[in-house]
Amino acid sequence: MSTQAFATAAPSTDRLTALEDSAYRIRMHALDMGETQGQGYIGQALGVADLLAVVYKDVLNHRPDDPEWPGRDRFLLSIGHYAIALYAALAEAGVLDVAELATYGSDDSRLPMSGMASYTPGMEISGGSLGHGLGVAAGMALGLRHQGSGARVYNLLSDGELDEGSTWEAALACAHHGLDNVTALVDVNALQADGPTKGVLRTEPVTAKWEAFGWHAIRVDGNDIGALVAAFDSLRGHRGSPAVLICDTRIGCGVPMLETREKAHFMRVEEHEWQLARKQLTDRHNRGSAGSASVGSQGK
Ligand SMILES: [Mg+2]
After folding, report:
1. What Gene Ontology molecular-function terms does this entry list (predicted)?
2. Is 47 exposed, middle or buried (0-12, 13-18, 19+ CB in 10 A)?
């Protein structure tokens, strides 16, 4: 797994511990929501929990009690099936009440199984049809620049979304227009609906491709909160081109029994397993961060 070191001050232990606690709660929320449906994109939610904790607690400039505040940074979830992860993060951030998570996926809920902007506070775009998030990000970023706004646009993509030609058209446009208010976050979990990414359509070397498209590219272990914080710290001063943070993540990260599960793209978890999953998550958290404890535990 590739990692990079940055010339920034090391984040404080208190800051990292608070973020690890946030990631733990995000994972727990995702498990609780998953149990209400008995299945879902749990593996991905556990995989991006560290990234979402850092983004929502340490990076985004937003107002949890006013999710439509015009000056907010925009976070675009183009992968609508990751909605369960974003709901968990929005609850952790205080945009949603934790109690509302119990309605996940049920009739009349504001939390449908695929992300929909018209339903959920804090959900900027409707996702699901892949490959559109970065194009929307480009348009939003242009608009914000014309308005003289200092707000930034973040787009979370999956590695499967790199198969979409529209993603690369948008990447060209962002670089052409010098949109340094755009940051793409790519969840490289090496898996997509049809199987391992390297077998479906090879996208490596991912970093070199983004760089060739004119982006400032950084690649980190996406389950290492310290590495994520250092990467975002280094990006704060970047100007002149869009930036991409490529995050290598592990499906199911933090819950050992789910890290090795077959058919991980859409995971079925038996009724009796949810409580065990929560216990494993808590045991792992109490021993140290989810990510650092599981490095190397699963072949990718
Ligand atoms: Mg993937």
Report:
1. magnesium ion binding
2. buried
